[in-house]
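Need tokens for this chain, all 312 residues.
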Amino acid sequence: MLINQDFSVDRSKYIGGSDIGAILGLSPYRTRLEVWMEKTGKPIGLLDSLPLRFGSFAEEFVASEYARATGFELTQDQSTHIHPAHAFMSAHIDRFVLGDGTAKSPTRILECKTANPFTKAKWGEPGTDQVPMSYLCQCIWYMAITGIEKTDLAVLFGNSDFLVYEINRDLELESLVLEKAKYFWQEYVLKDIAPPAQTEHDYQLLFDKGNQVQSKEANIEIIKITKRLHALNKEIDSREEEISSIKKIVMGHMGEAETLTYQGKILATWKAPKPSTRLDSKRLELEQPSIYLQYQLAVQSNRRLAIKDIAL
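Here are the structure tokens for all 312 residues:
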């Protein structure tokens, strides 16, 4: 089923391909709690970053490189595709690969990606389905919704390497992914119950406001793990002292030299960074108080967890 509408406006109504990796706990960028907050209309910062914007910008280039490399004809479809049996499951496809013949119906999906060259170790040989799990689940999701049996995942690593991976439809894996998505939608989104937190950031999102008059008694398990935390912090402090001692020895050896070498290779550098400029807010407040007040913003910071080492 197709819906001709602005998908970005209706993200809260559907689970999309960019959500499924997070729902399964496989995304390095989002957690299932963040997806839940988006779907249930909770306040959450917009998912936006330079790599994401570049990925969107570079989609056309990746698609054209794929067409050049394979000779396949592509078509772009801005429609929202809905799973025939589950109205909350949607797909927004980058490109469809057209088959031969006059009808030229889609024979495979093309998913376009950009990736940091330093993450290349997470990818297998081109032509295989050895791609990061979050991307694999996204391709599985799109095939489940469209019924198309094959997805090519084209990825541009930096500006130096372009590879194509091939994922075939796997009905057993697809069934598992859909079942997990269905459970998430029915048990968390429709019931408006938060899924278990996975990260510290998740807890900050869940409990962003504190109650000054509320206090809670610790149990013995909490006491044990806070004691362990203090022991770990002491280890960190001792390591930091050792690191500082080593740095001081190296700095003393280098003196005014900006470069330390060994057998022609650079071992260390000690250089001043390029000068930068900053606003002298204190001076502005003193000399132009009315202007200073006009540009003040109230910023609410996250709650800060401070654990004390108490004697028992």
